[in-house]
Amino acid sequence: MKCCRQALLLSSSNCDGYSMLEFAKNEICSALSKNTAKELIFVPYAQKDYNAYTSKIKAVIEPWGFEVKGLHTFPDPVKAINASKAIFVGGGNTFLLLKTLYEQNLVDLINKRVLEEGMLYIGSSAGTNVATISIHTTNDMPIVYPPSFNAIGIVKFNINPHYIDTVENVKHKGETRDQRLQEFLEMEHSGRVFGLREGAILKVDGEKLLVTGVNGAVLFEK
C-alpha cells in the first residue's frame, strides 16, 4: 500500500443533530485544502437522479469555497477522474454504485489514482462501502448485480456504515447488526470489519487510520 493515499470514509452524510455533512465539514475542508483541490468531482452513481443528487451536494459544499461538478456531466469519466485532485462518492445503493463504476471502467482507475498518485477520496455510506476491499458488509439490497463484490480497495478490510449497537430487551427478534457481521466473519474470505456509527469518519492518511467525526466506531475481528 502506497503511503500517499488520502481518504475520508464517512458512515453517512446525515447525522442526528447536524445538517447535511455538517459534522464532517472541518475534515472535508481541511483535506481539500491540503490537496490544493478547488474543484471536487461528485460521483452520484448510487442513486438514479444524478442531477438532483449533485445539486444537493453542490448546495452544501460550494458555500464552503469549493466547486462541485457531477461526474456524469463530463463526456469522458475516465479522463475526468485522471485530471481530478479529489472526488466524493455519494451514498445510496451500494450494488448500483459498484455496478456503474465497473461499467465506466473506474474501479481500478480510482484505486491507482488514490494509492499511487495521491488523489483524495471522500466517500459516504455506499461511497464508503466501495472504497473497501469488498461490499460484503453493505446494508443494502441487491437491486442490481455488479460483476464482482470486489471493490476499489483503498483499505484492505470491510466497513459497515450506519452501524447500530445492539439494544437489549427490544421486541424485534430479527438478527442484530452484530449477528449479521458475525455471519460474515465466519466466512473464509472475511477479515476485520469497522462498524462506523452514523457521524463517524475513518480518516486515512498514508498508513495512518484515525476514527474521527462523532459517535465513534466498533472493530470486529475473527
Query: Structurally, how many domains make up the residues?
Result: 1
CATH class: Alpha Beta
The fourth-level CATH homologous superfamily is Class I glutamine amidotransferase (GATase) domain
Helical coverage, percent range? 25-40%
CATH architecture: 3-Layer(aba) Sandwich
Q: Would you count the extended β strands for me?
A: 10
Which segments are poorly predicted (pLDDT under 50) over 5 or more consecutive residues? none
Q: Looking across the biggest beta sheet, what order are the strands in?
A: 3-2-4-5-1-8-9
> Any idea what the shape is?
globular
Protein name: dipeptidase E
Keywords: Cytoplasm, Dipeptidase, Hydrolase, Protease, Serine protease
InterPro entries: Class_I_gatase-like, Peptidase_S51
Subcellular location: Cytoplasm
What would you say this structure looks like, in words?
One of its GO terms (biological process) is proteolysis. The structure is a single chain. The protein has helices at 25-34, 50-61, 77-83, 94-103, 107-115, 126-129, 177-185; strands spanning 6-10, 39-43, 67-70, 86-89, 120-124, 158-163, 193-197, 200-205, 208-213, 217-220. The protein has 222 residues and is of the alpha/beta class. The chain has one domain: Rossmann fold. Strands 3-2-4-5-1-8-9 form a seven-stranded mixed β-sheet. A three-stranded mixed β-sheet has the order 6-7-10. The protein is globular and about 50 Å long.
